[in-house]
Design goal:
This protein is an alpha+beta fold. It has two domains: 95 residues, no CATH class; 118 residues, Cytidine Deaminase, domain 2, CATH 3.40.140.10. Helix content is 39%, strand content 15%. Helix 2 crosses helix 3.
Length: 226
């Protein structure tokens, strides 16, 4: 059934106006965002197909521009709008979390506060967390994206951002999509390089975490920070 065939009082936008946004279903919220359907499919049909594809509304946070390539009627503009919406939601969530400052005093806290960044990724993502003198988070920054088995990390980018946000310390975190948390030779080399440069620059490299979806390896805990 197309949206225009639904009684006006039961259409998603009208229900939002009447009952409030919190009383709409996931399908109705998505249908409003999609605005229009495609030939033979309503916006609500597309919304239902999207939710079937991810299996759970919470998994929308892991989508990328190609997640819904197999859903007919969902064009590139709608895909871009969905990805942008999810990214905005993440940033709003992070901004709200930053009000209550979390001190990054140990690797477990760091992992638990950031593990969602790596859920479902198929290649390596290298993040740096910039901290003040009390180990409060100043800024998270995704600096590099690599292939499944290696990341090309440039120390100048790591420390340039440290200066820009006046950080006293940094923590690095990247994922191993394979789930194997053992540091590679490249991981050991880049960590050693960053620690040495940090000492010269007066910016402490406090830890480097290698993470999977469920666990982590801490260079600090394993006495690998030099």
């Amino acid at each position: 059934m197309l949206i225009k065939e639904i009684p006006e009082s039961e259409r998603p936008r009208e229900r939002l106006m009447k009952y409030g946004v919190s009383n709409l279903s996931n399908e109705e919220l998505l249908a409003i965002l999609l605005k229009t359907g495609s030939k033979g499919k309503s916006a609500k049909d597309l919304a239902i197909n999207i939710l079937k594809k991810v299996g759970n509304i919470s998994k929308l946070k892991d989508i990328n521009i190609h997640t819904f390539d197999d859903i007919k009627g969902l064009g590139i503009v709608k895909k871009i709008e969905l990805v942008v919406l999810i990214e905005l939601g993440k940033r709003i969530y992070l901004e709200n979390n930053s009000v209550e400052k979390i001190q990054y005093t140990n690797p477990e806290i760091i992992f638990n506060d950031n593990k969602y960044l790596f859920q479902g990724l198929k290649q390596e993502y290298f993040y740096v967390f910039y901290l003040d003198s009390k180990k409060n988070l100043i800024e998270r920054k995704l600096l590099f994206m690599g292939t499944v088995d290696r990341s090309l990390v440039h120390p100048r980018e790591v420390f340039k951002n440290a200066y820009l946000c006046s950080a006293s310390g940094i923590v690095c975190m990247h994922n191993h999509p394979s789930g194997d948390l053992i540091p590679s030779n490249a991981d050991l080399e880049i960590t050693k390089t960053l620690v040495e440069i940090g000492r010269i620059q007066g910016i402490n490299v406090l830890d480097h975490l290698i993470v999977s979806d469920r666990n982590y390896f801490s260079f600090f805990d394993n006495n690998l920070m030099g």
